[in-house]
Amino acid sequence: MASSQAPVLSTQRAISEFLQRAADVSAAIPPTGRLLFALDATASRQPTWDQACQLQSDMFAAAAEVGGLALQLVWYRGYGEFQVEPWLTDAAELQRRMTAVQCRGGLTQMGRVLEHATQETQRRRLNALVLIGDCLEEAVDPLCHRAGQLGLLGVPAFVFQEGCDPNAAQGFREIARLTRGAYCVFDQGSARQLRALLKAVAVYAVGGRQALENFSKRQGGLVRRLTQQL
Predict the structure, then answer these.
(1) What pTM value is reported for the model?
(2) Would you say 227 and 200 are in contact if contact means Cβ atoms under 8 Å apart?
């Protein structure tokens, strides 16, 4: 009986060892997409910041269907406060860091976001930049110059505007155009809209245009219009 059991135990041990090695290899594979996620954390943004905290895990889930995602959170608030978080691949850790942030009054710093994105992709390629804000308090021409530089480096900016401020809309549209990205307006009260848009960009960052087109066919609506701009 002992000899008949040995092959079974040996096979089970071999399977366990194989699965463990496979898990180790999977963990060592770097993410295939790098996404810079920039948020306005000035006072008017608190409701949507809280909303984004709840939705950001969906970005990782959507990206996981086509590959891995590494995300860097950048935010600004107050008197010139500009924070760059470390690159993360874990949704829970990103949410922990986001929920620790409280929005404060201050001016927008889109220019610094674009400058950081340019520097970051020069170190290691970014697949996409997400910008979320509701207003723009900077001169448009310098922003266009920085956006053009980013566009030459092949990094599309997906700019999502909350509300309908016309000055912000003009600047945001130009940033999207010059980087060959896309611009979209979403409603503050619609978590569903923001969820779909963020998932779409995560899919693009990992799988490119084809993955986004496949995703947009299932989603329709805002996501399809976003895809058509690229």
Answers:
(1) 0.80
(2) yes
